[in-house]
Structures are given as C-alpha cells and as structure tokens.
Fold this sequence. Notes:
Elements: H1 2-44, H2 51-59, H3 61-79, H4 85-114, E1 116-117, E2 120-124, H5 126-147, H6 156-163
Antiparallel strand pairs: 1-2
Amino acid sequence: xxxxxxxxxxxxxxxxxxxxxxxxxxxxxxxxxxxxxxxxxxxxxxxxxxxxxxxxxxxxxxxxxxxxxxxxxxxxxxxxxxxxxxxxxxxxxxxxxxxxxxxxxxxxxxxxxxxxxxxxxxxxxxxxxxxxxxxxxxxxxxxxxxxxxxxxxxxxxxxxxxxx
Length: 164
C-alpha cells in the first residue's frame, strides 16, 4: 500500500507538467490505459517469479488515480459554470465514489463468486477475475477515445504574449 501511496504523491506532483504537455483527453486516456494494464498485471502476477507484476500494478496506482479521477475533477471544474462548480464536483463524487462504488462492489462480488475453483470453496481463479475489469477498462478506453471531444482552452496570458 505504501508503494501505491508514494506513487500517487509522485504523480500528483508531476500532474501539472503532464497536463500542459498532453492535455485533458490524452491524460485521461493514459489513466484509462494504466487501469487496464494494472488489472492485467494483477491477473498474471504471482508471489513467485512474477511478483514484479504485482509490484508494477501497485505502482500504477498513482497514474490510474491521478490521471483519471483527478484529471476528471479538473475537467469538470473548468467546464462547469462558476456558480455550479461545487455542485458539479459533488455530483461527480456521487457518481464515481457513490453509485459507481456501489455498482462496482456488487459486480465484483458476483465475478469473484463466479470464479471459484471447483471443489475448493476458498480458492479462486484470480487471473480470470482480474481480466474482466481489464477488458472493461480497455473497452471504456476505446469508447472514450472515439467519442470524447475536447478542445484545449488556450491560455489567455500565452495568447497575449504571442500577439505582442
């Protein structure tokens, strides 16, 4: 857990640099790709020779969270009218952490139950379990890449300097 937390702090510090260079859409796409890759690493990692995959998945936490959730919050904040920003942030938190968390917990419980090892009520087919959210994350990535349109808003200060 500490590795994931340190990763999140590191990428939070680097996020403004990436946001300026990649823009909102590409940063969100990198975050989504990181989620899919993280789940694949968890699917194929093990406590033996492939333990590096588990550590890699843990270290991806910062990219996943910061580049997806935090960038989404920044995007909402820039797009919402000033008088509705707090409500918009509350709504995005409700959708992602409230309703999304509830649905995700419910669905993940069903997936875990569906992949019990026959004859052993305590064992699960974790590779298959982790590949399901990996596939969903990849699908969302593709749909987002195709359907999300966003023009980066130019910095008025930069335009003024360029015109001078």
